[in-house]
Fold this sequence. Notes:
The protein has four helices and two strands; from the N terminus they run ββαααα. By secondary structure, it is mainly alpha-helical.
Amino acid sequence: MARHKLVDGVRIPLTEAEETARDAEEAAWEAGAFDRSIARLREDRNRRLAATDWTALQDVTMSDAIRDYRQALRDLPAGLTTVEQVEAVAWPVK
């Protein structure tokens, strides 16, 4: 199915060059899907780690449960190779 663009409210089919350029844009976007997905996961992981940073202060005794939780968060991105794996991550429980 041909793609179109709007020019002054009129629907015009894309030229062959525009179709080729659009296909390249879509391929580049799809190629970056894993990078975007893992970046979102790391941002969420970093927020979760930051929420427990106070437990790592010198004058606070960190419980084994929190230590294990923080380690599980730090280990989280290891071994993830697909967008589906990243989206199916089971977050560790605090």
